[in-house]
Amino acid sequence: MRIVIAEDAGMLREALCMLLTSRGHEVVAAVGDGDALLTAVAEHGPDIAVVDVRMPPSHTDEGLRAAIQIRRDHPEVGVLVFSQYIETRYATQLLAGGAHGVGYLLKERVADIKDFLAALDQIAAGQTVLDPEVVTQIMGASRRAETLGTLTPREREVLAMMAEGRSNNSIAAALFLSYGSVEKHVTQIFTKLGLSPSDNDHRRVLAVLHYLQA
Fold first, then answer.
1. Which of the 8 DSSP states describes residue 108?
2. What is the DSSP letter of 5?
3. ω into 57 cis (within 30 of 0)
4. What's the N-to-C CA distance of the chain in angstroms?
5. For residue 46, is the peptide bond before it cis, meaning its omega torsion is within 30 degrees of 0?
6. Phi, psi of 47, rounded to the nearest 5 degrees
């Protein structure tokens, strides 16, 4: 099959090229950033794009966002996200809408080259290949988002300000509320998020983590 590789680590990029060509595949382009990936896919029309998540310039989620654009603009191209990072928000978008010909594997969990090559064959055949840990984290993020959906708009506003590190006094001043009203909102947030009082956990920190992860 014809393959485009997007991997910013030069040595790994070359290793993937050598592995795939040695197994009879054609690497039509090997690039190091998301923009170059999109250009290569448009130019070469490969069967599959193998994409890392974090690439220049910000090294956050450029690769995954590029993968989503490939699925939108070139639905006939299979996509294998091959990374050490799980970005649940964009992974959910990548897999939305009855995804087919898509995979998401973690580098450190692919113990056998045969598994990697088999995944490419499955994606080329229109199947979906996911690492179990990716599935677990996506499902966890979905549950957290559903839980946040039970909060009222005001409670979400208070939680967002908690995530900014604001105290209850600061939140009260910003929202023109009494201190007691803010306390009641915070208590309701803890209750809806299932954060019971504990000697070991700081509920305010846990609530903020819940918000950020969702």
1. G
2. E
3. yes
4. 37
5. no
6. -80, -35
Cβ 166 vs Cβ 173: under 8 Å: no
In the chain, DSSP finds a helix count (H) and a strand count (E) of: 10, 6
Nearest to 163 by CA among 189, 184, 143, 140: 189
d(CA 65, CA 94): 9
Give the number of other CB atoms < 10 A from CB of residue 73. 11
What whole-number distance in Å separates Cα of residue 204 and Cα of residue 158? Answer: 12
pTM score over 0.70: no
* Closest of 35, 33, 2 to residue 20, by C-alpha: 2
Q: Which amino acid is at 2?
A: R
Instruction: Write the pLDDT tens digit of every residue in 121-154.
Output: 999 998 888 888 877 777 666 666 667 788 899 9
